[in-house]
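Example 3.2
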Amino acid sequence: MAGMRVLLVEDFLPLARSVSQGLQETGYAVDLATDGAQALDCLQSVAYDGMVLDIMLPKVDGLTILRRVREKGSDIPVLLLTARDQLDDKITGLDAGADDYLVKPFAFPELIARLRAVMRRRYGQRSNVIQVGGLMIDTAARTVTCRGNVVPLSAREYAVLEYLACRRGQIVSRGDIWDHVYDFASEPSSNVVDVYIGYLRKKIDHGQGEKVIRTHRGLGYSLT
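Structure, written as tokens:
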């Protein structure tokens, strides 16, 4: 599920940079923490959609981070990464509240598939396909069709639409969209969210009787 903000916690820099780049190229917004203390600071200031968490970390280990997150009542999807391959370690991680477990070395496509799956479960989705009326979004293929017609979208347009779709029926504020959608922090304009909503409406709602994207004045947007 691209268009989401992920915290990657990994202290081995070559792997951290490789995974971070891969996640970004897939369409995720990524924050990188290289030790446990930095990860806890990130978790206090940002509401992430998912976390890729190494167990062996300096300062604060991954299992301690996981337990603290769960003790605070957070349901953030967590995919554990570790070089350990013993059954006891897997059981300990899952009992601490991890949603899934991936042993190093791993194939990056498997990481993406597992991360997508744990994040999808958080929003009650059993399928990669999200349907809202005549709109269909394939989160694995990152394709969109509207009433049977393929809708070509830029990476940022797709990210905004998928984020709204995962929260269909809910009002999503501009601030939430800004925080979660890929690379908006680099945009100089304060109305960038409204601009991308406008682009989407032209491609999805244009010429249709029923509008898919609704504006809630002073509150934000929703997909109906």
